[in-house]
From TrEMBL, chains A, B:
Naturally occurring in which organism (per UniProt): Rhizobium aethiopicum
InterPro entries: Homeodomain-like_sf (IPR009057), HTH_TetR (IPR001647), Tet_transcr_reg_TetR-rel_C_sf (IPR036271), YxaF_TetR_C (IPR054156)
Protein biosynthesis listed as a keyword: no
Domain HTH tetR-type: 4-64
A single MF term (Gene Ontology): DNA binding
DNA-binding region: 27-46
The protein, known as: AcrR family transcriptional regulator
Key words of the record: DNA-binding, Transcription, Transcription regulation
Length: 186, 186
DNA sequence: TCTCTGCTGTACCGATCGGTATATCAATCT
DNA sequence: AGATTGATATACCGATCGGTACAGCAGAGA
């Protein structure tokens, strides 16, 4: 059999594995087990090993957020883009059933491996949201505070809903944040 | 030499080790290296191994929050207790330089090992804060929302300040949250 | 002084870690 | 057909994993 895998097909499986087990917890045997791909192929596509695999996941995540969240926030109608952000974020994180890998990596030593990528992800998110808020009528300092508060709140909601095993906490928190930002743009 | 260690002396060192490396990343060799205690003593005090060590840390953390945060929120003057909470939390987390181990454990598979302890920590925090908010004059539903938002925001601020390597983000976020709650109690 | 108890360091256990080498396979090109 | 290429499974590597066994050692009580 010659089943050819594409990086694009494998990376999302990596992502879920790292999400569930963390960087250290995601051993190569776990990864081969979940992807169904042997070490041979794994190292063929990712000669850099585990670190390259996780790096590919982060790049994949970054690309998704760039096109689905950041770009609309920067370029499209501000109010609409912000509203779409809440919906897309709720879907992406499966209403709290899925964590933010970037945030999780930031919390422990794994941060040192992907330092700049992790910082970028959040900087660009906050900056894009701030831009949208200002276009929607916020003053600069308020927009900055609210943007930080929004991104912050999302990360916190992920932690909390995981801890409580209650996805409604996540969706409810997003709603509260959305109202808060909406109130500030009129 | 007969240097007798107390569990109370060791546990905080465990805590920092788990914080920095995560549960999987905190190997026994790392732990012995940081504590300066050999495996012999380690397993003498903690026959249950790594899991018991981490469990002791969680119990330690829980006890600290109970006496320093939750109890005042439940019993003392509401406004004062809330104000004290922000100060104590900022100190405890070293202005964002130290993460919340409970939150970190919640994010990956480690949650399954300490499930009830993790959930309890957050449930009691939110409940205590809600109680204080109500005594300070909040309506019940608003108090619940604000309490969740507060705890949520703290967790998010920890993630964000770690990711950005910027402790000012943490302190600033706490300030914003404090203002938010203050505004709702008058 | 002589036990006895509690603590400690160390050697060791099987299992698994991340990673490498290689032989084989399927498909394509000449 | 024969050679070449890319993809795959597998065996294997030294290192380290979490955990155990145990011998020795210091101090308290007899």
């Amino acid at each position: 059999m010659k089943t050819v895998y594409e990086r694009a097909d494998i990376v999302p499986v990596f992502a879920e594995t790292f999400r569930e087990l963390g960087y250290e917890g995601a051993t190569l045997s776990r990864i081969t087990e979940r992807t169904g791909i042997g070490k041979g192929s794994l190292y063929h596509f990712f000669p850099g090993g585990k670190e390259e695999m996780a790096g590919a996941v982060l790049a994949d995540i970054d690309a998704w957020f760039e096109q689905a969240i950041y770009r609309p926030l920067r370029n499209d109608d501000a109010r609409q883009a912000i509203a779409a952000m809440w919906v897309n974020v709720n879907d992406y994180f499966r209403a709290g059933g899925r964590i933010c890998l970037v945030g999780a990596f930031a919390l422990d030593d794994t941060r040192e491996r992907f330092s700049s990528g992790i910082a970028d992800y959040f900087i660009r998110w906050i900056e894009a949201l701030r831009s949208a808020l200002m276009r929607a009528g916020c003053a600069e300092t308020e927009a900055q505070t609210l943007a930080e508060e929004g991104v912050c709140g999302i990360q916190g909601a992920l932690v909390l809903s995981r801890a409580l095993r209650d996805g409604t906490v996540f969706t409810r928190s997003l709603k509260t944040l959305a109202n808060r930002l909406e109130a500030a743009t009129r």
